[in-house]
Amino acid sequence: MIEENTIVGNVNGIRLVAGTEKNVFRKNVVMGNPAVQVSVSNPTPQGYDILNLSAQDANAFDDNLCLTGLNAPCPAVERSFAAFPNPIPIAGGAPRVTTISWNVPGVDSVEVRVGKPDGSLFAAGDSRGSAQTGTWVSNGMVFFLQDVSGGKPLTRANTIATLTIRFEEKP
User: Fold this and answer.
1) Residue 75, domain member (yes or no)
2) pLDDT averaged per 10 residues, the chain (length 171)
3) Could you tell me the pTM of the whole model?
4) Which of 20, 79, 82, 97 holds its CA 20 to 30 A away from the CA of 110?
């Protein structure tokens, strides 16, 4: 049973080799695999959020959230702009970082900006991608997903979505 995990920023998120069987994958968030950095360095990435090379129905996939899959169900996500984890647990000196992922079908080019539509550039790419923040991310920080297709200006009118980061104290 692989359940309730967050898997982001890898070449493959969940990878099952041929012959793998009798596993259950439930309620996992698997996005941004491969990470946007891999996609930039490899124009034809072969990574998937869930890559299943085992026989059909040899494993069970239930209620996972993913964007790309091979021989595994990924629900059709319309538009998404999310951070994983969010809230960010801040116990025991754990690094205060998160991975921002987006999926905006039909948009050619996006930028993720910090604080306002024309704020500092955090990431840029096409309709699907992800990038990990540094430890500079703070509680209440807002990210703006901007449609910059065809040279659109960085204005509120071209804001696709906003995302607020939260911290959570953990004992």
Assistant:
1) no
2) 86 88 91 57 62 91 82 74 87 81 88 98 89 92 97 97 91 67
3) 0.62
4) 97
